[in-house]
UniProtKB/TrEMBL annotation:
The protein's name: nicotinate-nucleotide diphosphorylase (carboxylating)
Catalytic activity as recorded in UniProt: nicotinate beta-D-ribonucleotide + CO2 + diphosphate = quinolinate + 5-phospho-alpha-D-ribose 1-diphosphate + 2 H(+)
Transferase is among the record's keywords: yes
Quinolinate phosphoribosyl transferase N-terminal domain sequence ranges: 45-135
Record function comment: Involved in the catabolism of quinolinic acid (QA).
EC primary class: transferase
Region (Disordered): 1-22, 36-55
Entry's family note: Belongs to the NadC/ModD family.
Encoding gene per record: nadC
InterPro entries: Aldolase_TIM, NadC, NadC/ModD, Nicotinate_pribotase-like_C, Quinolinate_PRibosylTase_N_sf, Quinolinate_PRibosylTrfase_C, Quinolinate_PRibosylTrfase_N
SUPFAM superfamilies referenced in this protein's UniProt entry, alphabetically: Nicotinate/Quinolinate PRTase C-terminal domain-like, Nicotinate/Quinolinate PRTase N-terminal domain-like
Keywords carried by this UniProt record: Glycosyltransferase, Pyridine nucleotide biosynthesis, Transferase
Length: 312
């Protein structure tokens, strides 16, 4: 059995990301993931349980194979705990050498796991699937965060998340320095083109939302400067400026800012750019004066960060 180098820093907690990922969500998600691999609880791993004695004990290192921003370390201990319970074995001990939200380099040891080898091997793919996925989202988000530094604009996520993993995806965005927009359909109203058609216009849609749900912010999607002004006049709190060329976006931002604080318009209207927001275009979009850039690709297209579990 080997141990990491003695000068490797140790972190008592795997995360300093706020708000933290809910413990109950982690437990439910790990249970579902283990069921997929092992079958209904307690399940079985026919390879590991046939080839590794239950008494065998080793250390495994969770290692980064690529540079990026790590996230998802918070699932490691629960994955090991549930796996150990299914196998009726003690849970391995975990020592974290970095935290979610930290930059990592190839070969870096992220955590040391010491305990029954069966538990380590059975849990391996589940914890790697979750942590690699989250780290990929965090890495993509961190790239946008760096690109927007000094502009005053923030990168936001969207609802384009993996079904069942939204909490993890949005946690990973926070780990990468991004900001969560809305968690679902329940916490912010967003009036899009189909809502406008269904309600008979922007103003009727906004008035209906105010009447039914007076406690929520109302955001309206606009494709043109004229639509943005219409939404502003109708009382929108927040404008989503969709798929605008940079010059049109800049003109729309200027028009909205000129109206702020006048004729019942709030002193500051939140402006969000979205659509075709690649990393190489992000800074020029931010410099138009928008408050936010929402990027669906953070969660729907980010490649995983390659992580591995190396048995010593």
């Amino acid at each position: 059995m080997s141990t990491p180098p003695p000068d490797l820093p140790v972190h008592a907690s795997p995360s300093a990301v706020e708000p933290p990922l809910d413990d109950g969500w982690i437990a439910r998600t790990v249970q579902t993931a283990l069921d997929e691999d092992l079958g209904p609880a307690p399940g079985r791993d026919v390879t590991t349980q046939a080839t590794v004695p239950p008494s065998d004990t080793r250390t495994a290192h969770l290692v980064a194979r690529a540079a990026g921003t790590v996230a998802g370390l918070v699932v490691v201990a629960e994955t090991l705990r549930q796996t150990a319970t299914r196998l009726a074995l003690p849970a391995p001990e975990v020592t974290f050498h970095t935290q979610d939200g930290s930059a990592v380099v190839p070969g870096q040891v992220l955590a040391s796991l010491t305990g029954r080898t069966q538990v380590l091997l059975v849990a391996e793919r589940t914890l790697l699937n979750l942590a690699s996925r989250a780290s990929g989202v965090a890495t993509a988000t961190a790239a946008f965060t760096r690109e927007l530094a000094g502009t005053g604009a923030q990168v936001l996520d969207t609802r384009k998340t993996t079904p069942g993993l939204r909490a993890l995806d949005k946690y990973a965005v926070r780990a990468g320095g991004g900001t969560n927009k809305r968690m679902g359909l329940h916490d912010v109203a967003m009036v899009k083109d189909n809502h406008v058609v269904a309600a008979g216009g922007v103003a009727p849609a906004i008035h209906a939302i105010r009447a039914a749900f007076p406690d929520v912010l109302v955001q309206v999607e606009a494709d043109t400067t004229a639509q943005a002004m219409e939404a502003l006049d109708a009382g929108a709190d927040f404008l989503l400026l969709d798929n605008m060329p940079t010059d049109v976006l800049a003109a729309t931002v200027a028009a909205v800012r000129e109206r702020q604080g006048r004729d019942g318009v709030p002193a500051h209207v939140e402006l969000e750019a979205t659509g075709t927001l690649t990393l190489d275009r992000a800074r020029e979009v931010a410099l138009t004066g928008v408050d936010h850039l929402s990027v669906g690709a953070l969660t729907h297209s980010a490649p995983i960060l390659d992580l591995a579990l190396d048995l010593r």
